[in-house]
Design a protein that fits this description.
- The structure holds 2 protein chains of 2 kinds.
- Chain A is α+β, with helices and mostly antiparallel strands.
- Chain A has 19 helices and 24 strands.
- In chain A, strands 1, 2, 8, 9, 10, 13, 19 and 20 form an 8-stranded mixed β-sheet that branches. In chain A, strands 6-5-15-16-17-14-18 form a 7-stranded mixed β-sheet.
- Chain A starts with 18 loop residues before the first strand and ends in a 12-residue tail after the last strand.
- The model of chain A has no long low-confidence stretch (mean pLDDT about 90).
- Chain B has one domain: Rossmann fold (3-Layer(aba) Sandwich), CATH 3.40.50.620.
- Chain B is built from 6 helices and 12 strands.
- Chain B has an 8-stranded mixed β-sheet, with helices on both faces. A two-stranded antiparallel sheet of chain B has the order 2-5.
- In chain B, helix 2 links the parallel strand 6 and strand 7.
- In chain B, helix 2 runs antiparallel to helix 5 and helix 3 crosses helix 4.
- Chain B is globular.
- The N and C termini of chain B lie far apart (about 55 Å).
- The model of chain B has no long low-confidence stretch (mean pLDDT about 90).
- Classes of the chains: A alpha+beta, B alpha/beta.
């Protein structure tokens, strides 16, 4: 348990580490790295098999490129994605991408407003009024199954020419193509602990120590993490990746002045095998608003072979400290509009991940001496279109093209060189143009859902010319009293809080029960307990020999924290109430979603609160996500 | 004393048992639903054999280690990305189905043929390792049949330990009932061992081993030829994964004795 403090750096004996030199070291394998390695691997050799881009570390050989991914497999990424796939398609002009397992062409897209069938949500007056009006005049608007299908999907949201994908299957397919070339090495199950930084230059990465106890102390078979030196380090480890965040925190090479990454969402989803007569065609895409809370948006994407990805996004601006996504996801699935499709289905997979939703405002320095940032961790996600996979892929392609240009002209991977090649390409591309439109699109959500939706619409329909300008202030989460004081008396709230702390459980179920949410009718197939979802849907694993990757930095701050959002938000119930007020962490349940990072209330001495989220092995073991 | 062993490990890939495995009726017999979508792992029995082999090869100077692996090429490639970081070996891939519904004789024939095709393999130094129950749906027949096809008479199954002796002979510990071992002596190679779990932990990832392995693994995979794996006239009346009954309860502060007692009572119901 993490209540035992980790071994401090001062306590660590001097460790002699193996050293290895390559030309390009890559961290994290996702869509961005897929785009990078796909593009680069095609250019390492000439058509006649001779070397086109020669290695400096192994003369006579092509550039030595190695990529480390912390997950146990390259297909264990989480996202039921719908994407316009413009960048992806341009990388595979001759390939029918619907042949990728679980991929389908989008053929039907709907934006659906879900009413509250149980009158239990935290609806504002405006939402209640909307529900009342729709119920009263439902015959006019075609309201059925407690839902209103909007006749119009705003153009900025449309994915009509795109693809429904399973990110796990897509990543697996891409990595198979890349690895089959034999020119690039990709190693899953190997976390990268940190970047190696000398002055303002990134000189490579240090891999995680193996053969340690949970506190990081060497045990039998201790193998110090190797130092991998590289002329270029490519960072694509996502929004909660250790290497990216450590560079973000670096004074000179991390975040440009004025940039911050305060907006997040937790995406949680299930992959469901639909019953044979569900009537849904592959390629059907539903976006939902209004339920299970007005702030929580949902999605329903239909893959081939009767599989569907169903999920919700719980945003950081959701004004409730009781925010466990799992039960909300179950209520979402039970909504009459969706349940008519899902009833009789079987859970095939489950997972969760954090999404960085600051967009352009969260963009770090994209490149510097010896390093470049690609993908979601580089602020590429378009928060207006709700699109990140294709953007991430395209940033990877742009970096690869830049690397080819620099290597061919035998120029070093310096800040100037990368800015003139990679950053220039990115600034001139559709990714950047559309991110400018989206930059302030979500600002309105800081004042409420209605203002948020208005702000998004304004930004989307005016090409970003009009949008709320006010950016979110520093992290602030409402207290339990602020969030539920109008529905539950203060003494009762106090009592619930104390009982949950004693029982070591989150507040979520108790509060939802008290607010009138119905019990989940568990059926053992699709509606299953949270812990069963870990086992049956995620196959969560935690290989031994690695230190705990979640650490509560200053226990005294946890003791002072009354709300413990880290417990409430933990996707796998890996963080629970621990002894003496300090949360306990069980890595065997951690799905590596990273929600604890951005849900820490404590005003720690770093930007991300009191949670240290390090490189860890294991996590989800489902390839259907 | 030996100049080193020639150790051949038969280690095929299987679908990751953490996934939902669903048998379906295919045109040529039973198959796994969406088999190509399922991530693969090295068969766990065979993985132990591989780690024991690598340990022995490291200890005995001059030894050489081959891994003969049957599976679809794409799946072999995925599995190699994981295990090639751990131990040094030369891959002998056989591109064929790994659904688990093949007949032991057919599988053994493929494996034996692949072993015989290894250039420079010295029978007087040969140790053939494999998983005790691998590629046989738990029947433990495939490795025996491999040994027969290679004319290896000294075979041991359910092995947990192999102790080379100074005179070139071996002491072998095989599992028997009651949690005990049968201790046998064997004069020397050639020898076939169907491993149980052995005693070694999973080796740590070593990037340098991975880099070195991949220089030979990827070309070997690119050369691998696709071969049919006949079902050998088998007719499956039905196929189903092991039945599971799951009941989860979150508990705190229970001793291991209390948990064991509760599990025993639950099983007894």
């Amino acid at each position: 348990m993490s209540a035992v403090p980790p071994v401090s750096a001062a306590e660590q004996p001097t460790i002699e580490r193996q050293q290895m030199a390559v030309d390009i070291a890559c961290v994290g394998f996702g869509p961005a790295m897929g785009g990078f390695l796909t593009t680069l691997s095609r250019s390492l050799l000439n058509p006649d098999g001779t070397v086109r881009l020669e290695s400096a570390t192994s003369p006579g050989m092509p550039l030595q490129v190695v990529c480390y991914e912390r997950g146990d497999g390259l297909g264990f990424g989480v996202s039921g994605a719908v994407t316009r796939a413009r960048g992806i398609r341009s990388s595979f002009p001759d390939v029918d991408l619907t042949q990728i397992p679980m991929a389908a062409q989008v053929n039907k897209e709907r934006l659906v407003y879900l009413l509250d069938p149980w009158r239990a949500t935290r609806r504002s007056f405006a939402f209640k009024a909307a529900d009342r009006a729709l119920r009263s005049l439902g015959f006019l608007f075609g309201v059925k199954h407690e839902a209103f299908e909007l006749p119009y999907t705003p153009p900025f949201m449309r994915k009509h020419d795109g693809l429904v994908l399973s990110l796990g299957q897509f990543n697996q397919w891409v990595s198979d193509q890349v690895a089959a070339s034999g020119l690039v090495q990709i190693w899953p199950g190997m976390p990268v602990a940190e970047p190696l930084i000398l002055g303002n230059t990134v000189t490579g990465v240090r891999l995680a120590d193996q053969g340690t106890d949970l506190q990081g102390r060497p045990e039998a078979g201790f193998t110090p993490g190797m130092d991998l030196h590289a002329a270029l380090t490519v960072i694509g480890d996502g929004p909660v990746g250790t290497v990216g965040r450590k560079i973000d925190a670096h004074a000179n090479i991390g975040m440009p002045p004025g940039h911050e990454s305060r907006e997040w969402a937790l995406g949680m989803k299930m992959v469901v095998e639909l019953r044979e007569d569900s009537g849904l065609e592959a390629g059907t895409v539903l976006h939902t608003i209004g339920f299970p809370e007005p702030e929580i948006f949902g999605f329903f994407y239909v893959h081939p072979d009767r599989l569907a990805s169903v999920g919700i996004f719980v945003p950081s601006w959701f004004g409730s400290p009781v925010r466990t996504a799992y039960r909300y996801l179950q209520h979402f699935m039970l909504h009459p509009y969706l349940w008519r499709y899902l009833q009789g289905g079987t859970l095939k997979s489950w997972g969760a991940k954090s999404l960085q939703e600051s967009g352009r405002h969260g963009e770090p320095f994209l490149a510097g001496n010896g390093y470049a940032r690609i993908g979601e961790g580089s602020g590429s996600t378009n928060v207006l279109a709700g699109s990140g996979v294709d953007e991430a892929w395209t940033t990877g392609v742009q970096l690869a093209e830049a690397v080819i240009e620099l290597a061919e002209s035998r120029r070093a991977f310096t800040r100037e060189g990368l800015e003139a090649t990679y950053v220039r390409r990115r600034r001139e591309s559709w990714v950047d143009a559309e991110s400018k439109v989206a930059a302030n699109a979500r600002n309105g959500f800081q004042q409420g859902v209605i203002t948020g939706i208005i702000g998004m619409s304004l930004a989307g329909l005016t090409g970003g010319r009009f949008a709320p300008a006010l950016r979110p202030a520093s992290r602030r989460f409402p207290s339990l009293q602020e969030a539920y004081g109008s529905r539950i008396s203060a003494p009762e709230l106090k009592q619930i809080e104390e009982e949950c702390a004693i029982q070591g459980t989150s507040l979520h179920d108790r509060i939802m029960d008290r607010c009138g949410w119905p019990q989940i009718p568990l059926d053992g197939k699709l509606l299953i307990s949270h812990q069963d979802a870990l086992l049956m849907g995620g196959g969560v694993q935690a290989p031994s020999g690695f230190a705990n990757h979640v650490i509560f930095r200053r226990p005294e701050l946890c003791r002072e924290c009354a709300t413990k959002l880290c417990v409430e938000m933990c996707s796998g119930q890996a963080i629970t109430h621990g002894e003496q007020g300090v949360p306990a962490f069980d890595r065997e349940k951690c799905v590596y979603c990273g929600a604890c990072l951005w849900n820490c209330r404590a005003d720690g001495d770093v930007a991300q609160g009191n949670v240290e989220f390090n490189a860890g092995a294991g996590g989800l073991h489902s390839a259907l996500n | 004393m030996t100049n080193g062993y020639h150790i051949v490990v038969c280690g095929s890939v299987v679908p990751d048992p953490l996934q939902t495995l669903e048998p379906v009726a295919g045109p040529t017999g039973p198959a796994l639903k969406n088999e190509m979508m399922l991530p693969a792992v090295l068969d766990p029995w065979a993985a132990h054999a591989l780690y024991e082999a690598a340990n022995l090869a490291t200890k005995v100077v001059g030894s050489k280690l081959w891994l003969v692996s049957v599976g679809p090429k794409a799946k072999l490639q995925q599995v190699m990305m994981t295990i090639a970081q751990r131990v040094s070996f030369e891959l002998v891939p056989v591109d064929a189905s790994a659904s688990g519904f093949a007949d032991s004789h057919s599988t053994a024939a493929l494996l034996a043929e692949a072993i015989q095709s290894i250039p420079g393999l010295d029978r007087t130094r040969l140790l053939v390792f494999g998983g005790w129950e691998s590629a046989s749906r738990g029947a433990g027949t495939t490795m025996q049949l491999v040994g027969e096809r290679l004319d290896i008479l000294d075979q041991f199954q359910g092995v947990d330990q192999l102790n080379p002796q100074p005179d070139g002979s071996f002491e072998v510990l095989e599992r028997i009932e009651g949690g005990r071992h049968q201790v046998s002596a064997c004069s020397g190679p050639p020898l076939l061992l169907g491993w149980a779990t052995g005693n070694l932990p999973e080796p740590r990832n070593n990037p340098q081993v991975g880099m070195a392995n991949m220089r030979s693994v990827m070309p070997a995979l690119q050369r691998a030829k696709s071969v049919p794996l006949p079902v050998g006239g088998l007719h499956f009346l039905s196929a189903s994964p092991p039945k599971q009954r799951r009941q989860t309860r979150v508990v705190k502060d229970l001793s291991s004795e209390q948990i064991a007692q509760e599990i025993a009572e639950w099983i007894g119901k």
